[in-house]
Specification:
Blueprint lengths: L1 H15 L3 E7 L1 H4 L10 E6 L4 H6 L1 H11 L4 E4 H5 L6 H9 L1 E6 L10 H26 L3 H25 L8 H14 L6 H12 L9 H21 L3
Parallel strand pairs: 2-3
Antiparallel strand pairs: 1-2, 1-4
Helix pairs in contact: 1-4, 7-8, 7-11, 8-9, 8-10, 8-11, 9-10
């Protein structure tokens, strides 16, 4: 992957020269071993005075990157990046915890993310997830394929919410998804909130291997997911920071 990223950065340097402020990986591939065939390679490109024509000029290099990495790199203006902590507090917090500078300045270390914005976005994301789970289950409760897709697509959001709650509680956030679930489970137990960590570990396994959950388990699993999300939402709503 190092050669793959170096080639992409060299193309960016040719295009932007000194305007290329920073390029960094974020997410699981920044802290764990991963390959282009295993998971998305999340990459942020920060450009000074980014203009629309720059995106047109970077199309060829980005198209090659997207084909290999299965994910479109995010381009942001430098000033925009530095002034968006209040808009994307969850995303910025995750990037602070899991990133790797590939080129240029470290524009992450000194970011100031206020907890009031973090708690607000956490509540919003949890409510959105709960509505999506309820509405899909209401419409597709007899469609096993739809329920399977709902479980898979919701799994990443759960981990993001769990990490954020640990952060809001001033607790260390583990790098791996399974450790996040285990630590979050302990947090819920200490607050006398029922939480089935084995259920969410099974959901993570299900993302990679559908055999981890049998068809006759789907109904119980999705119902527990919905009820647990409701409990987590109530906790976040009352969380004092």
């Amino acid at each position: 992957m190092e050669k793959f990223l170096n080639n992409f950065v060299e193309n960016l340097k040719e295009q932007f020269n000194e305007r290329l402020s920073s390029v960094f990986l974020y997410g699981s591939c920044a802290v764990e071993d991963c390959s282009r065939t295993f998971s998305d390679i999340n990459l942020m490109v920060i450009i000074k005075d980014l203009r629309a024509v720059d995106l047109k000029n970077a199309h060829k290099a980005s198209a090659k990157y997207t084909k290999d990495a299965k994910y479109l790199p995010i381009f942001m203006d430098k000033e925009e990046w530095l002034n968006s902590c209040d808009v994307y507090p969850i995303e910025y917090s995750d990037i602070k915890d899991r990133h790797k500078i590939v080129h240029g300045e470290n524009l992450i270390e000194d970011l100031n993310i206020e907890k009031k914005y973090l708690r607000l976005q956490c509540e919003q994301e949890t409510k959105n997830l709960l509505i999506r789970l309820r509405q899909t289950y209401l419409a597709k409760s007899t469609d096993k394929t739809a329920i399977k897709n709902l479980i898979k697509t919701s799994s990443k959001t759960f981990v993001v919410i769990f990490r954020t709650i640990l952060r809001l509680s001033n607790e260390k956030v583990p790098t791996t998804h399974f450790d996040v679930i285990r630590n979050f489970s302990q947090k819920m137990e200490s607050n006398e909130i029922e939480f089935d960590s084995e259920l969410f570990e099974k959901i993570l396994e299900f993302r990679k291997n559908e055999k981890a959950v049998k068809n006759d388990e789907l109904e119980t699993l999705i119902q527990k997911m919905i009820d647990t999300t409701n409990s987590v939402l109530k906790y976040v709503d009352k969380l004092e920071i």
